[in-house]
Predict the 3D structure of the following.
Amino acid sequence: MLAQLEARNVKAAIYIDEQTALDGETVRKIYVSGNTLGIMWEGDIAKVENVNSIIRNQTMTKSNMVLFEKADEMSDELEKALNDKGYKAHTVTYNVSGKYQTMVANVKNHISRRTSARLAFGVNEDSVRALENLTSYFRQNNCTVSAVSVFD
């Protein structure tokens, strides 16, 4: 996916979990390629802090973004606790899945009805093909790409 983003000169926020954070090579590739690192919510603030520590050790920078795949996981109290620690919580508005052509059609339909959307793509061949197709669509429709990938 990083190669596809680079080939299209697109930068993205890429949210990673603890397991991915432990893969220093992947974290450095994301960072060096000019993409922004974010942190996947995995159930508690201590994990967020741990992932951020790992990111800092790999890149000498840290993230302030936390992504919740399900909006109902983020309560007002939890969002405030994250804000108090300097984090900004985000939720996914559409989790892109399925086969390539279905993904493209569903994403176009989803974003045509909104002023903003946070799309989550998996890391698989169909997602990469859908992203290739959608990149030009995003540009033609003046979309800003800010969160396009979630590492499983």
User: Anything to note?
Assistant: The beta strands are 13-16, 36-40, 65-68, 88-91, 94-95, 119-120, 147-150.
